[in-house]
Write a structure and sequence with these properties.
This protein is an alpha+beta fold. It has 22 helices and 39 strands. Helix 4 runs parallel beside helix 5, helix 5 runs antiparallel to helix 6 and helix 15 packs antiparallel against helix 16.
Length: 704
C-alpha cells in the first residue's frame, strides 16, 4: 500500500475536515443522552463545542430538571425508572431522529442489550461494542480475561447457579484455604452495590442473601461471587482509550481509595506514593487486558494495590467514570469529545499526537482532586436526604478563574428523589501539586452551601483535613476509622445551634423578633431576659438559653451536655429570600462568615466546616426516657425508601441487634436493627411498600 493510499484510509484527526472517503464513517449530528443529572449536563457541554444537537430524555419526575432545559430538545420516556428501559431509550431515539446515543454512567451504560438494539436500529452507540460490554460486564468472566492477559487476579470463588446451602458449603471450603475475611461482590455490576465483607461463617448466610437481593435490584442479576479480601489496600485505576484500529492507550492513573460502603467519595489523579515502576506496570497491565478483547472507546481498569506493593485486578468499567474530570484536568483532554471522535472512526494516534511523549506515554500536568457532593449526611451512620433544593452555591470567583470546576446535576428548586443515586454533583480542583490541590478543594468546599437537602459537605471537609489523607496513608478499608466520632458530631451540632441562637436573638428583621417581648435589645439587656431555644438535630435535642451582653451574646447550652459560648455576631447582608450572611466570632476567635437560611421550622446553618439543618421544636424527653416510662420504643425511618425485607411479625421476641427491616433508598440497602431486646408490638412496614421519611416502621415493647 502506498503512502497516499494509506493517508486516504486514515481516520480524520480531531481538527481535520472530512473528505470524500471519510464521509462513510459514522455520523454524529444529533445525540440522545440516555441519562440524567450532572453527567447529562456534562455531555451537553461538549456537544455544544462540537456543534452536535442533543436530545434529553426525562422521566415524569425529571420533567423540570436542568438537563431537560439545556438540551436542544427533550423527550419524555415514562416513570421514574424508565432510564433503565432499553425499549424506551431506543424508541425515543427513533422518534427524535437521533443518530447516536451516549449512555453516560449507571443505568444502561454497561448493558449490552442497549448497544445491540441501537446497532440493529442503525444508531451509533458512544461506547464499546456489545460483545466487549458483555465479556467484561460479568466480573467473573472479566477475571478470566485478565488472567489470560497475565494480569494479577485475587483468589476467587464463583457461586453461579448454586443453592444457598451449596453457597455456604463452597464458602466454607474456600475460606479454609484463603482464610477470613472474604468479600461478596455482584457479578453484574459495581458501585458498591451487592458488596459485603464476611468475617466469619455465622454472618455469611444473611450477607449472601442481602448481597444477592441488592445486586438483583441494581443490575437485574442476583449472581454473586466471593474473593479474598485484600486489606489494607488502595483503589487504583487506569483510564484507557482504544480505537477501531487496534491502538490502546493508557491515559494515566487515578487514586479512589477514600470510600464509604465501597462507594467512592474523593478521587484524584495521578495516583501517587506507589512503589517505583508500579504506575507503569498498572498502565501496561490495563492495556494488555484491553487488547485481549479488542477494546474500543473509553474504559477504566480497576485494581487493588496492597501495602506490599502488589496489585490485583478488580474489574473493568466499560463506560465513562464519575471521576473522569480529574483525568481531564491533568491531561488537558476532553474525554467525552474523545469518546465521540472514536465512535466517529478517528485514530487515537492522530488525536493524541500532541499529548504523548516519545515513548508513547502520557505525562500528567499537576494534580487534580474531585469530591463527590451527595445528598447524604453522616450522623454516626449514613442517612440519605431528599427534598427540594432551596439554595445551591459554589464559589463563583473560583469557578470563573478556572481554579475550581463544579459539575452539578441540580439547581435551586430542583427535586432530589429517592429513586436515583444521591450524587448532587462534583467539586473538582487542579493545582501544580497535591498539597495545593487539597488547599484549593478545602477552600471551595468551605465556601459552598446547599440548603433544603442534607449533604456530605461536612464529612468531605473533615476527611480532606486529616493527616491520614494529606500523607496518603488512607486505604479503602481504613475510611471507617477516619469518620468523625459521635462526640465530634455533637460538638459540630452544638456549634451550629449556638450560631443560630445568637443570630435569632439579634436579627431584628425576622418575624419572630418583631413580635417578641424582648425584641428591644436595650430592654433585653436591662431586664436580664434570656431567650430559650430548643432544636432537634438528627434525633438529638439541644436546649440553650441566650442573653445579650455588652458586645455580644452569651449562650448557655443545657442539653445534651453543658456548654457555654460567647458569640460576637453582626449581619453582613440579606443574600437572597430567607438567606442571610453574618460575621461571627465564637469565644473571641477570628471572625468568620456564616450563612443562615430559614425554611419554616427548619433552619440551615452553613459554616466553613459544614452544613446542618436544625429543626426548632419545644423541649421533649429523649427516646431512652420515653422507653423507660412507657415501656415501648418507636422505630422510625429517617429516609424515604422501599421496604425490601421484613424479618419478624407482631408478637415475636427480638434481641438487640436483630435485623428487623431493610429499606432500599437511592439504590442502596439500609438495614434497621433492634436497638434493644423486647417484643415486637406493632409493625407498619410491608414488603414492597414505599415509606416516607419520618414514617413509623415498628414498635418494640419491653419484655415482660
Amino acid at each position: 500500500m502506498t503512502n497516499s493510499q494509506n493517508d486516504q484510509q486514515k481516520p480524520r484527526p480531531l481538527n481535520a475536515t472530512m473528505n470524500s472517503v471519510e464521509s462513510a464513517r459514522p455520523v454524529v449530528r444529533r445525540l440522545l443522552i440516555a441519562n440524567r443529572g450532572e453527567i447529562a449536563r456534562r455531555i451537553i457541554r461538549t456537544c455544544r463545542i462540537l456543534d452536535i444537537e442533543t436530545v434529553a430524555v426525562y422521566s415524569d419526575i425529571d420533567a423540570d430538571a436542568p438537563h431537560v432545559h439545556e438540551a436542544t430538545c427533550a423527550e419524555p420516556i415514562g416513570g421514574p425508572m424508565a432510564y433503565l428501559s432499553v425499549e424506551a431509550i431506543v424508541a425515543a431515539a427513533k422518534r427524535t431522529g437521533a443518530d447516536s446515543v451516549h449512555p453516560g454512567y449507571g443505568f444502561l451504560s454497561e448493558n449490552p442489550a442497549l448497544a445491540e438494539a441501537l446497532e440493529a436500529a442503525g444508531i451509533v452507540f458512544i461506547g464499546p461494542n456489545a460483545e466487549t460490554i458483555r465479556a467484561l460486564g460479568s466480573k467473573t468472566n472479566a477475571k478470566i480475561i485478565a488472567a489470560n492477559a497475565n494480569v494479577p487476579v485475587a483468589p476467587t470463588l464463583l457461586l453461579s447457579g448454586d443453592s444457598p446451602d451449596e453457597h455456604l458449603n463452597k464458602l466454607c471450603d474456600f475460606t479454609s484455604q484463603v482464610g477470613f475475611p472474604v468479600i461478596i461482590k455482584a457479578a453484574a455490576g459495581g458501585g458498591g452495590r451487592g458488596m459485603r465483607v464476611i468475617n466469619d461463617l455465622d454472618s455469611a448466610k444473611e450477607a449472601l442473601e442481602s448481597a444477592a437481593r441488592e445486586s438483583l435490584k441494581a443490575f437485574g442479576s442476583a449472581e454473586v461471587f466471593i474473593e479474598r479480601f485484600i486489606a489494607p489496600a488502595r483503589h487504583i485505576e487506569v483510564q484507557i482509550a482504544g480505537d477501531h484500529y487496534g491502538t490502546v492507550v493508557a491515559l494515566g492513573t487515578r487514586d479512589c481509595s477514600l470510600q464509604r460502603n465501597n462507594q467512592k467519595i474523593v478521587e484524584e489523579a495521578p495516583a501517587l506514593n506507589l512503589k517505583d515502576g508500579v504506575s507503569d506496570e498498572l498502565c501496561q497491565a490495563a492495556c494488555r487486558l484491553a487488547k485481549e478483547v479488542g477494546y474500543s472507546n473509553l474504559g477504566t481498569v480497576e485494581f487493588l494495590y496492597s501495602d506490599d506493593g502488589l496489585f490485583y485486578f478488580l474489574e473493568v468499567n466499560t463506560r465513562l467514570q464519575v471521576e473522569h474530570p480529574v483525568t481531564e484536568l491533568v491531561t488537558g483532554l476532553d474525554l467525552v469529545m474523545l469518546q465521540i471522535e472514536i465512535a466517529r472512526g478517528a485514530d487515537l494516534r492522530d488525536i493524541l499526537k500532541d499529548n504523548l511523549s516519545l515513548d508513547g506515554s502520557l505525562i500528567p500536568s499537576g494534580h487534580a482532586i474531585e469530591a463527590r457532593l451527595c445528598a447524604e449526611e453522616y450522623t454516626g451512620k449514613f442517612v440519605t436526604g431528599t427534598g427540594v433544593i432551596l439554595d445551591l452555591y459554589v464559589p463563583r470567583g473560583l469557578r470563573e478563574s478556572g481554579l475550581i470546576r463544579a459539575d452539578l446535576g441540580y439547581e435551586v428548586c430542583s427535586q432530589v428523589s429517592h429513586y436515583y443515586d444521591s450524587l448532587l454533583g462534583k467539586i473538582i480542583v487542579h493545582a501544580p501539586n497535591r498539597d495545593q490541590a487539597i488547599q484549593l478543594l478545602r477552600k471551595g468546599l468551605s465556601e459552598a452551601r446547599v440548603s433544603g437537602v442534607g449533604t456530605n459537605r461536612s464529612l468531605l471537609l473533615h476527611l480532606i483535613s486529616l493527616d491520614a489523607f494529606r500523607k496518603l496513608l488512607h486505604t479503602v478499608q481504613g475510611t471507617l476509622g477516619l469518620l468523625p466520632s459521635v462526640a465530634q458530631l455533637h460538638d459540630d451540632w452544638i456549634h451550629s445551634h449556638v450560631i443560630l441562637a445568637a443570630a435569632r436573638l439579634l436579627d431584628q428583621r425576622s418575624e419572630w423578633a418583631k413580635s417578641s417581648p424582648w425584641s428591644d435589645r436595650e430592654k433585653v439587656a436591662a431586664t436580664n431576659i434570656t431567650y430559650p431555644l430548643t432544636t432537634l438535630i438528627h434525633g438529638v435535642t439541644i436546649s440553650s438559653e441566650s442573653r445579650i451582653e455588652d458586645d455580644g451574646v452569651s449562650v448557655r447550652v443545657m442539653a445534651p451536655y453543658e456548654h457555654e459560648a460567647f458569640v460576637r455576631i453582626s449581619a453582613l447582608e440579606l443574600a437572597a429570600v430567607g438567606l442571610s450572611r453574618y460575621s461571627i466570632s465564637l469565644n473571641r476567635s477570628s471572625p468568620k462568615q456564616v450563612s443562615i437560611l430559614v425554611d419554616g421550622a427548619t433552619t440551615w446553618v452553613h459554616t466553613d466546616s459544614g452544613s446542618l439543618g436544625l429543626r426548632t421544636i419545644n423541649a421533649r424527653p429523649n427516646r431512652k426516657t420515653d422507653f423507660a416510662l412507657s415501656g415501648e420504643l418507636v422505630i422510625t425511618s429517617p429516609i424515604p425508601g422501599k421496604v425490601v425485607a421484613v424479618n419478624f411479625t407482631v408478637g415475636d421476641s427480638v434481641q438487640e441487634g436483630d435485623l428487623l427491616i431493610v429499606l432500599d433508598s437511592m439504590k442502596m440497602e439500609h438495614p434497621f436493627k433492634a436497638p434493644r431486646s423486647g417484643v415486637l408490638s406493632s409493625i407498619n412496614a410491608i414488603k414492597g411498600a414505599l415509606v416516607n421519611a419520618g414514617a413509623e416502621l415498628a414498635r418494640i415493647s419491653s419484655a415482660q
